[in-house]
Write a structure and sequence with these properties.
homohexamer; 325 residues; alpha+beta; five-stranded mixed barrel; 5 strands; 16% strand
Chain lengths: 325, 325, 325, 325, 325, 325
């Protein structure tokens, strides 16, 4: 494995540097004096730096793509008070030359293990139609590949490689616990809802190391993309009951809970109602703990989180200390 | 063709009557004295009447279904000040024995003619992929049968047999006119959007003479059902470009315009934006003229329309009269 | 124990009847001919009937109060097509003469058992301050008496005698399960939040057999009444840490989740966030299953529930049947 | 005609420059060392630059006003990393010395031609009262002068000199087309509504080269200013029927469609309903194409447009290319 | 003055009756047996009764109009359990034959006295332009006649003859008091705002004894009608400063406070801000005391008031009693 | 009294400076080279400056706390184009060494005088229970100390030392005036509501010279903190009527007027309704005049005020000038 070299936030502001980085953006831009230069936005998990390649920009641009990891050598200069890298050499890195976690946030759980756990839930579904359908979807190469890297969201919850898988698995486990308290709930519906509600995110958010929407994701969203995946696999199964398909579609279109939050229908069954709340609980808790952990040390409050319209309180877990006084 | 007999609003309040009616509801109910009677809700375009069959209710109940047209004979009695029919004889009518328009509101335009007109629009689409897809959908037996009877809505707009077809055809024609003013618009997209945006209503509202939601319609809605129809036909065509599919999906998920009005995405292209407004214009104008025509005669204002949160003003078209004074 | 006599929905429309009923309303009203009569609204779990006592109304009115159970004898007459009871004899029943469940909906769980369960949760709290406070509140005679009869709500969720206790105990049990999945959660906070979030309902909804708001409940609401109970008991404990009090107050003022839903603050800790969702989940599931069980038999959908802005789908639990076809 | 000189985005960052510019702001400001200097904000269609005149600031300030075009000579310096112009000479330019389009965005259509087109629509109105009123308004010198330069909006739609005229004329043409599809519509009402709905913008946005609100515009808005213009001209005509005036007032007060969008009344006639949608369609399409044309080249998506709460998709018109693959 | 005769709520349900009533509705309706009858809706301040005239309906219909007071003789019959009057004789009453307050709610304050008080406020305005304008408006015969009878609203506040005058005068007096506390406020602006903010209601609600909207009121509303009155009188005054007109227009268009409450602009000056709150305070207090006074006697709470989304508490003024215990 | 020294906005950008400042923030931060430095944020009423102490940071940090006034000597350097102070000497100042108004905005009214005025209002309350309660609260040392320094808000209204007291006293005076116009109002309730509605702000915003929320304020808010203070003092009084307590609690929980504005209940009595509007009027007028007075000089409009969603118009008070032309 190649050396990562310095992380971006530790680059010396002068002298020659060599390091690995993710290509977040790449464009040919006109020089004031005529001709072109190659503009790059490079990043790792510690930050970003703009870079320019003045020599043979068009040829250099063919060596790698957005989203690739590259090994780059150059010098740091100040431009309008901002550091930028003047590229001398750059090449694409192969898988094996780098640690993915150096370049983008990645789920703390092992992704292969999570996938096995998810398959276990699917295999445990009692209804034959449902189980066959869920297995078909998880075995779909497109889904199987993507679910290991897709994030749960761009910013709000589980914004990391494997975040979607972490979220889905967590909701399955949560369902398992909640059923123990409300035995009237139907376990098959809940597992199916947990697996399918966000499945469209494998296309909406995709597999890019940059957390961002794909074009299809921005045009139609994960609800419609999830419906598409469902329809494709139902079509492959024989005599799949339309009543079951309808209920699965209902889970997908209702899991945002309210019309103005992006649901096409409000949840109409106990399982659909619970699915919505489990999705919320798992997303909000992950977000809360992440913000709290990021939080500036020594402060009672996190920074203001616009999506939550609040700051979070960081002291709570320490109730014991009060008691011990 | 059988005689309709009296319309429900003209039934004499005493004596023996014979007439044809639509069965809106049918149920076996317990008698106070034990045993069962057959409860019916009968209707025609002038009103509704409750009916009871005391003799052999279970056997009678097998003779016809909800949504059938029946010929019924009986006597009218008052019960809690409301007239009800005591059934003596009842039988199912066959197609040909009755005029459908006697029993449920029906589009004023000829449905075969509208369908030919719609097919003409589809055939005129220039893009081969788009044209093939639209033809495939219109030739789908399920769609072809249902589109001739499905309404545009239960109450709001085009609430009549054939109303969906009338709305879709009208939006195609409207698009044709608006393109003349804005030539930059892409005609293929607009025709495709006009044909597909509400296509899920063939399953959401279905083919029943009673205007109502189907179970699938209530569970998943016409947006998701339209996406399902689209996906089914795209799967049948070879090498259908995913970019075109995405845009068609976008038309379907965005045609309600705003998230809190039931759109999954806001319209992002000029054609998608216009499609939303054409849908609104055609629905609102149909609704407005229908309310205005319903009277009451001699009044300046219609009754209050809750869905519009207003009364409509009935005098406007008479501007000429003012001028002539 | 006295005989209940006929239930109100089974009263014969003529002849003399004797039965037990709850007095929902009581008023002296002027007779057209001068003088007064006693107006009553009587009910049991099957319905309501208006009653009039023409003889010695003022004296009769002193024999019982609103919310009492009475034994009444009289005749049924029709007035404006509605049955009413002309009272001949009426007297107050003592506890022991009647089954409370005949007159108002009552929790299906045994209330003493639920209370013991709740006390068990309280006793298991690890933090000494928290445990002492919760014990103090549960031992408060006002709270201890009321919590066994107060409902969870007038209409929306747990609208029955003991409904509040059922809801609170259920949320404690739910918390226990969810902690198993998210071990980072603080159990003490969750149990305290579960016990306290709705405690003000013992004064807001009170102990009346009629499910209704008290005057204090209508003026200040259960959030403020819960804060009052909390403050009263904190004042009784020595050196109760203000940090713990603040967090408990936060649970009470934030448990409705959003400002426009009646929260004074949005939840700012993981436990406060989860408490809101557990409250929602338990309330919504109870409401959903109750509506589903109320029928109507044979229908796929419940009646429209205005507070949920939807009908609920009754078929879901039967997924197995589809599979078995 | 004078030379424009360099455009602001091409000014050399050093040396002496001479160019023409619009005065967007002008103020005397205190020098740290006592006395005053003249602060200017200069602009052309390519950008803005701050300028300072140190010599004889008060006298210089009298030579021109905000909104004038000036010819200026000076040197560029850096101040806090921002370029600023140190003025050596400056004088007001007369009409004829410059091309207006160099300094502010201007409608692409010829304004005289649009005005003739609009007059043609007005002359074609059949109702004598309506036609006379519209002619009176268009002949009002205040209106006639302003309508040739007023924009359609400051930022949202038609934000350019002549933009209002372009919008109004376009809505007239659009109405003409839509009437062909819905012949029941009254053409006179639609033309009158198209001409009058935004007429108050001639005072709200005014004639300044800087797109901005006038004081009256900010205080009372174009709806009230439009009503004022209407009232002034109705008063000049003999026996103008109050029924027609009321309907025209209704068009003005209802054209924003919904109360929370700035309508005083919701549209109550088919023509008023359509007017609202035509206004929306024309504004949204102009805005969409403008954003799409602004680039950035090679990108699928425009920048985020806050007023639309979305990015727009730039690829749509190219459907043909997909087909041709 | 004629005798009123019995009030409608005291009419005997049989026998011949003679009384005076307001004609709220009048229509010729078809008889089942052919021909027509005259349908009337008669009312006084105690209630309503439907009436039918079978003899010479067309001729009878010419004798009076909606909104007239009539003297009627006839017999009461029951029809579908509702009493109705069979008319034998009916004639129009002249002013002087009846007391208006017998037929419609009327302000408790003397209307001539209120008008003098209002004129006093207007005469006390210091600014010559403002004073002349307000005097011109109050002397406008249309305004002067209507303001003595127009209500403040149909249902919400001051829904009685003279209610508008009562409201406007009250806001003037309130302003006088509030200025004493905030001397920085400009008294002229406040008096002008108080007089003008609702002046359009003289046309919106009009002079009918039935509290209802006029056609113009429903089409354009009192804000636009107030602007019209203002513009008409400004046009009559010489050299009225446009700055003052703009501010007065601002008061009218901003007095509802928020855009979604019907304001075209939010209030932007201290006086405009205060005007909005004074309007609210005076309307809400009148409404609250009216609801409280309407009873029902002995109840702590009023009936639910939908426009306020609450019940009001009736006990408050009695705080003294608590103290005296 | 010590010299203030230069104000922060007048500090020379080079050379040695000595001045007094408020410590807004204080933190030990790691040096790049290892070890720590002391970071400070210093402010006075003219602005802020960051400061760093490199020598003996830990020891220096013990000399003063956040919110103290310090005397500091050091040199100004530029860092990333921003000036910062390198601290040479720093020490805490004692009361008497500085003028508080040099460091934070302070009410223009004398605070002792306002407090006497408030006590006068309290002493004038007629109801014995109410008067005793209000006196008890004002005599509470915690309240008495804090009310002299607590602000009315952090940004929106009365954001200055003593601002809360200024607001409360002003509302009392306003009530006094409004009662003169509406004599039916109960004065005792209004004075009590004025004194108590915001009393929780003494804990929510606290006594810090930096205007900011305390932790308790952020967790539970001034409504809940006000209820707590009320409950504490009611508990100290004998036989305080629960009906009066309920109404006072109602004033506190309803004074924000609407649920989505932070009220737990909507105001249900005339006095509660008026209290809400008086709170609004006093807050909005203070805010409006403050914004207007802040300039900028010569401009008709203030800067945009996000909390009001508008700019304010600064010209209004000058109506006289128009008249004088």
């Amino acid at each position: 494995m190649a050396e990562k070299g310095l992380f971006i936030d530790a680059l010396r502001r002068d002298g020659l540097v060599t390091f690995l980085a993710l290509v977040k953006d790449k464009a040919l831009r006109p020089k004031r004096t005529g001709g072109w230069y190659l503009y790059l936005l490079l990043s790792d998990r510690t930050g970003e730096i703009e870079a320019k390649a003045w020599d043979q920009p068009q040829q250099t641009a063919t060596l790698f793509e957005r989203n690739d990891i590259v090994k780059v050598r150059g010098t740091i200069e100040l431009y309008n008070d901002h550091p930028q890298l003047i590229v001398q050499r750059i090449r694409r890195c192969e898988v094996g030359e780098f640690e993915e976690t150096d370049f983008c946030p990645t789920s703390a759980r092992d992704r292969e293990e999570m996938l096995r756990e998810l398959q276990g839930f699917v295999d445990s579904v009692g209804n034959n139609h449902l189980r066959a359908l869920l297995q078909s979807i998880l075995n779909d190469p497109l889904v199987a590949t993507a679910i290991k890297v897709a994030p749960g969201g761009v910013r709000l919850h589980h914004p990391c490689r494997g975040g979607l898988l972490e979220h889905v698995t967590s909701v399955c486990n949560l369902a398992e616990k909640i059923i123990e308290h409300y035995p009237r709930l139907n376990r098959d519906w809940l597992i199916a809802g947990a697996v399918l509600h966000d499945i469209g995110k494998v296309e909406e958010l995709g597999t890019s190391r940059r957390l961002s929407y794909t074009t299809r994701g921005q045009l139609v969203g994960h609800v419609a993309l999830g419906l598409e995946i469902l329809e494709r696999h139902v079509a492959r199964l024989e005599e799949f009951p339309v009543e079951i398909k309808s209920m699965l579609q209902h889970f997908i279109v209702s899991h945002h809970g309210e019309i103005d939050k992006g649901a096409l229908r409000r949840p109409v069954s106990p399982e659909a109602i619970l699915l919505h709340y489990m999705d919320e609980v798992d997303a909000r808790l992950e977000q809360a703990w992440r913000l709290i952990d990021q939080g500036p040390a020594g402060e009672e409050w996190t920074a203001y989180a616009p999506s939550l319209e609040r700051q979070l309180y960081r002291w709570c877990p320490l109730a014991q200390e009060v008691d011990a006084r």
